[in-house]
Inverse folding.
């Protein structure tokens, strides 16, 4: 009887599994048909679905998870003595290549859809997919098979070996080698870390919200700023946010007010956040040590160009030391300005922005008005200039795809071809105009990775540029602030980087590259926003677009960027060193560390009383722990390449083509330091990071 029941149960399960398989196959068939229809509409090579409904997103997630599980189960079943490229690497490589655009089709809608229902479905899809792939990375049975292939070696091409090593390392960093009891401890630590990170941010946002100051205490502030402040009992309410704090530190003539506001802003988080951070650092260290690393900073930097915390600290200290002469000259200038205006009072951190602003006003070659500059940057002129510069520099051809399927009427789609070979490299969507319900910041989202598949076909790269540019109103041109021009130019570089990548494997494509490298191309290209030749291509007076920005304006914009470069970077280095040092130790006294570090980096400028940057620097808690240095690292690389290859001729097509083919094309398939060294013909140097800035003041 028991045997009969067991057989019946097996039949029922088998039948259910068959029904699920049939359903999934039908869904897969429907998806493939939609992709084919997309190709017929003029998008060959695209597997991105841009108009999924909430229910379609949910069903597609089911399909993605089922297909993923099927592939992982199949690989896990391979006998260790029979592992080879075809039955281990090829299935995973194809899975990643095929599923990435489908995953992105589900999750990018939370950033762009006009439908609340679709945005919610997209957000839920992201959570489900993250949870599923996290489980996949922890599968011991799959790890054993992949590791067996890596150990077997022999006859595997370098990029394939790098891919296998990447799979192995990814799973090991998720604890696959740990004993069950250690995995439980790892999950407990991760949960505690997440909870404390959230508490740090919540505490940062829950402290005192404002100060009340009289108009006399706000002397020097623009009338428009004062007028917009809430009036409470004959005093003005100053919010402790960047929106109010930065203008006061830049414009307020009353030194005691600047000090009061800077101190209140620097005290956010307070002792409670120092306690939370101390506990966070201890838990992160335990987490890293469970996985075999000496500390969390070494865990975080292992897969980056730096490779170790010691290398990062050495780099930051070297940059800081090389900046000292420049920064001391800048600081002496500011001290002289304070002495003339306020008398012989000590110079403090609260004085930096105010006297930098005064120095700018004295040094700029004309009465610099950002409001006037803005009139030279209508959105459409800026966009047209960006497209032309990138096409000319990198040998590309952009063509707008008309009647393309998009998620909003203002979205544009472009194809990208190589000018010389006419090869299709990819597509990019531009969703740059402001609307309700859309993601509020400017960023690039990779929708499909350029890579090869096992059947010999190639997937092209597809990217989405999101922004919140103003719309035209009452026939008046929509204008961009100069900072918005820079941001748009910077982010479009990520688009070009992604599309020009030609990796074999999806996980090495474009923006999937080394975290210390991925910002470098964009920081390099930002230089084009400060040179007269290219800046005039990006501009046109809104009432007469034939009149581009003047040479004097271009000169002043560049001078403003470079002024006080040493002091600005020193402040960043202070925070980066703080981040790196606390995460390279098991336990450390935050207060004593900052007391020691601050005067060394900031050349004797005292820390504001009762403040500690460790209490109010959110990046220490969430998202950037141990990798805050990465921006400066990328900037050093960018300045080296700009000075070596582009400084003499911004629009040198040959130089641009060499950069595209030697630096952007490989993606993450090769070691990043090796790629840059081969391109430069030497190892990268920090020297160019300082040379162009020495005469800026």
């Amino acid at each position: 009887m028991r045997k009969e029941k067991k057989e019946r149960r097996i039949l029922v399960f088998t039948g259910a599994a068959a029904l699920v398989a049939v359903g999934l196959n039908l869904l897969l068939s429907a998806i493939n048909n939609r992709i084919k229809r997309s190709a017929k509409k003029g998008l060959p090579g695209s597997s991105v679905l841009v108009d999924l409904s909430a229910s379609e997103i949910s069903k597609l997630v089911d399909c993605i998870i089922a297909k993923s599980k099927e592939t992982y189960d199949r690989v896990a079943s391979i006998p260790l003595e029979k592992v080879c490229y075809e039955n281990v690497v090829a299935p995973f490589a194809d899975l990643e290549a095929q599923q990435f655009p489908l995953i992105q089709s589900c999750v990018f809608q939370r950033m762009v859809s006009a439908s609340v229902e679709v945005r919610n479905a997209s957000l839920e899809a992201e959570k489900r997919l993250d949870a599923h792939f996290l489980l996949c990375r922890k599968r011991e049975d799959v790890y054993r098979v992949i590791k067996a292939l890596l150990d077997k070696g022999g006859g595997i091409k370098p990029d394939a070996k790098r891919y296998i090593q990447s799979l192995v390392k990814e799973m090991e960093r998720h604890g696959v080698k740990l004993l069950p009891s250690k995995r439980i401890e790892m999950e407990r630590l991760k949960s505690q870390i997440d909870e404390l990170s959230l508490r740090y941010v919540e505490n940062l946002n829950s402290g005192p919200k404002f100060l009340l100051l009289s108009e006399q205490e706000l002397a020097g502030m623009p009338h428009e700023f004062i007028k917009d402040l809430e009036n409470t009992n004959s005093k003005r309410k100053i919010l402790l946010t960047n929106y109010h704090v930065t203008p006061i530190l830049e414009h307020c003539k009353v030194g005691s007010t600047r000090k009061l506001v800077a101190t209140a802003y620097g005290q956010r988080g307070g002792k409670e956040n120092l306690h939370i951070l101390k506990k966070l650092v201890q838990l992160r260290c335990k987490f890293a040590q469970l996985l075999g690393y000496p500390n969390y900073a070494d865990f975080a930097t292992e897969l980056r160009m730096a490779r170790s915390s010691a290398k990062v600290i050495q780099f930051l200290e070297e940059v800081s030391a090389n900046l000292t002469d420049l920064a001391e000259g800048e600081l002496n200038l500011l001290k002289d300005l304070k002495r003339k205006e306020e008398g012989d009072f000590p110079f403090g951190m609260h004085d930096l922005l105010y006297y930098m602003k005064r120095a700018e006003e004295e040094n700029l070659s004309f009465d610099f008005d950002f409001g006037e500059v803005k009139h030279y940057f209508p959105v459409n002129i800026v966009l047209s200039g960006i497209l032309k510069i990138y096409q000319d520099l990198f040998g590309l051809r952009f063509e707008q795809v008309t009647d393309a399927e998009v998620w909003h009427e203002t979205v544009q789609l472009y194809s990208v071809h190589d000018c010389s070979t006419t090869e299709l490299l990819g597509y990019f969507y531009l969703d740059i105009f402001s609307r309700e319900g859309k993601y509020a910041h400017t960023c690039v989202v990779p929708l499909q990775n350029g890579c090869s598949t096992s059947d010999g076909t190639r997937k092209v790269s597809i990217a989405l540029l999101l922004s919140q540019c103003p719309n035209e109103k009452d026939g008046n041109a929509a204008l961009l602030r100069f900072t918005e021009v820079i941001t748009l130019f910077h982010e479009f570089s990520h688009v070009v980087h992604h599309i020009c990548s030609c990796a074999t494997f999806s996980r090495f494509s474009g923006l999937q590259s080394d975290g210390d490298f991925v910002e470098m191309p964009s920081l390099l290209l930002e230089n084009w926003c400060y040179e007269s030749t290219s800046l005039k291509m990006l501009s046109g007076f809104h009432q007469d677009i034939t009149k581009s920005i003047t040479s004097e304006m271009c000169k002043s914009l560049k001078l403003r960027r470079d002024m006080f470069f040493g002091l600005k970077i020193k402040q960043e280095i202070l925070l980066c060193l703080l981040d790196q040092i606390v995460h390279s130790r098991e336990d450390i006294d935050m207060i004593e560390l900052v007391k020691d570090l601050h005067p060394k980096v900031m050349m004797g400028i005292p820390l504001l009383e009762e403040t500690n940057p460790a209490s109010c620097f959110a990046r220490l808690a969430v998202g950037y722990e141990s990798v805050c240095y990465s921006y400066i690292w990328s900037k050093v690389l960018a300045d080296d390449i700009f000075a070596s290859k582009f400084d003499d001729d911004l629009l040198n097509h040959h130089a641009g083509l060499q950069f595209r083919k030697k630096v952007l094309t490989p993606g993450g398939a090769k070691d990043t330091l090796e790629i840059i060294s081969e391109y430069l013909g030497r190892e990268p140097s920090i020297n160019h990071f300082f040379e162009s800035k020495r005469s800026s003041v």
